[in-house]
């Protein structure tokens, strides 16, 4: 069948459906994948045709695709309620919903489940295959990059595709990072930002110095090295954010640059501004150099002065989020004879502090995570109910949303009782770690340290809230969410020969991937 220029001939439900490039295409291209799946005005056939139109999916606003992690690959999922992903006859992850599910983990109430019929799986659209992996090729885990131990090679770098059935990772996305050459050495997953991953290059698994960093994009297969900032692990210590926290800043609207923002902590876990050594360092891809930015942060920290020290700490494990063109993360600042300040600091593409937002906590509340969902800042705090008996028991988490960014108007959105996560009344905050908030729905993702599992909590559903996604193992080292970015970045375009020169070092006796 011949088609006019600008049209595509395809078949959906046995009928040829040409899509003209023009207003119709332009309107659809402005919708996110979530909105396309939820739209009642767009049939499933037209939706699938449009999403499969060459490069159309890559031009759409993206949602949470899955998680990268370092740990053991058990190749099995643990589903809540004994559900194995039923009622999805068409194989698209819709689980019987008329609009086809959104493939992003969002359903009719915008919660991110991709399921409007309330099945007992908690709304996941990753139905199990015969091997229980849930992936289109038999496994939703992809391995690589971390060297073998005495475990048959099972310990390594993996990817869990949450949308493996409804909207799997494109074939040209390399979740194994095989495009990164072997000579970069051991890669330790640190964090992600808007589709880019940040790794630290190390000399080993226990005591080591930093050899620099790798920034890469699995969707475009681009990667670049970043030289060491000069920070080293203290003698006889393991690398831990008690000593160092590093954030990655990347704005897809300005793909020509990225930043690394690094904080050096002293032996007590604080930024020590009293010494001569810099404690805040920023790397800019535009200059290719690290700069000492301690003076700016020293001014910010003055309210926390105590015995000529500025008691400020930054913990990257509490999360970060990109919102309004700025990277937001949590900073704790101690003040003499006063309650500690919990602040949300926002930095711009130059690494400058542009906004400081206060988050008020009482003495029985602990800040545990910051993220963004549906265009608003979200913060999670843990509150301990039984203060007199054991303040670690009967934990409840509160999710607050910044309803008005300019007026700093916080409202409580949800409460998460620890018993919902553990199935028992007593629950310690040490048992659970928040690793992500769904950017388009009402999901919070935790790691259950007791069982070594990644779990998903549905905040707006009254029953069947918890879905156990997969087993990470008790020795997992990092979990970071992944939202794809299909646009190439000139900041990651470098000469391969130069990269090899920068990465060369003695690998004798070291693990290799």
From TrEMBL:
Q: A Pfam family in this protein?
A: b-prop_At3g26010-like
Q: What residue spans carry the Low complexity bias annotation?
A: 114-123
Q: Where is this region: Disordered?
A: 81-145
Show where the F-box protein At3g26010-like beta-propeller domain sits.
Answer: 190-466
Q: Which domain of life is it from?
A: Eukaryota
Which intervals carry biased composition (Acidic residues)? 85-111
Task: Enumerate the PANTHER family for this protein.
Answer: F-BOX DOMAIN-CONTAINING PROTEIN, F-BOX PROTEIN INTERACTION DOMAIN PROTEIN-RELATED
By what name is this protein known?
A: F-box protein At3g26010-like beta-propeller domain-containing protein
């Amino acid at each position: 069948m011949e088609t006019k220029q600008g049209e595509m001939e395809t078949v959906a439900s046995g009928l040829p459906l040409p899509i003209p490039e023009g207003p119709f295409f332009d309107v659809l291209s402005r919708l996110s994948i979530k909105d396309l799946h939820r739209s009642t005005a767009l049939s499933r056939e037209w939706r699938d045709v449009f999403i499969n139109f060459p490069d159309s999916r890559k031009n759409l606003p993206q949602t949470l695709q899955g998680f990268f992690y370092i740990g053991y690959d058990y190749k099995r999922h643990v589903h809540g309620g004994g559900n194995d992903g039923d009622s999805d006859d068409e194989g698209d992850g819709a689980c019987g919903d008329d609009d086809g599910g959104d493939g992003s983990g969002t359903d009719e109430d915008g919660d991110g489940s991709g399921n409007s019929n309330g099945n007992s799986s908690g709304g996941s659209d990753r139905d199990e295959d015969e091997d229980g992996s849930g992936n289109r090729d038999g496994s939703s885990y992809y391995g690589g990059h971390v060297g073998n131990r005495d475990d048959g090679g099972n310990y390594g770098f993996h990817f869990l595709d949450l949308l493996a059935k409804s909207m799997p990772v494109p074939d040209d996305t390399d979740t194994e990072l095989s495009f990164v050459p072997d000579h970069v050495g051991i890669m330790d997953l640190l964090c992600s930002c808007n589709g880019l991953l940040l790794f630290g290059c190390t000399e080993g698994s226990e005591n080591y110095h930093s050899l620099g960093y790798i920034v890469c994009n699995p969707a475009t297969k681009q990667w670049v090295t970043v030289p060491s900032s000069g920070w080293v692990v203290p003698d006889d210590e393991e690398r831990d954010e008690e000593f160092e926290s590093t954030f990655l800043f990347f704005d897809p609207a300005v793909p020509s640059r990225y930043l690394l923002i690094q904080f050096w902590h002293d032996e007590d876990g604080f930024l020590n501004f009293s010494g001569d050594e810099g404690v805040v360092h920023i790397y800019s891809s535009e200059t290719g150099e690290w700069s000492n930015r301690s003076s700016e942060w020293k001014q910010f920290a003055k309210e926390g002065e105590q015995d000529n020290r500025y008691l400020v700490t930054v913990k990257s494990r509490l999360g970060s989020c990109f919102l309004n063109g700025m990277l937001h993360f949590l900073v704790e600042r101690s003040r003499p004879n006063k309650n500690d300040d919990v602040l949300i600091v926002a930095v711009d593409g130059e690494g400058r502090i542009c906004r400081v937002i206060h988050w008020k906590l009482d003495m029985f509340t602990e800040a545990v995570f910051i993220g963004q969902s549906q265009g608003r800042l979200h913060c999670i705090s843990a509150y301990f109910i039984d203060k007199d008996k054991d303040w670690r028991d009967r934990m409840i988490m509160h999710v607050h949303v910044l309803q008005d960014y300019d007026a700093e108007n916080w409202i409580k959105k949800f409460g998460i009782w620890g018993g919902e996560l553990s199935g028992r009344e007593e629950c310690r905050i040490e048992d659970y770690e928040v690793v992500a908030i769904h950017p388009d729905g009402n999901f919070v993702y935790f790691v259950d340290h007791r069982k070594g599992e990644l779990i998903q909590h549905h905040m707006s559903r009254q029953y069947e809230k918890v879905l156990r996604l997969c087993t990470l193992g008790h020795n997992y080292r990092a979990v970071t969410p992944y939202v794809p970015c299909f646009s190439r970045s000139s900041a990651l375009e470098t000469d391969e020969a130069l990269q090899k020169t920068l990465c060369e070092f003695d690998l004798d006796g070291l693990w290799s991937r």
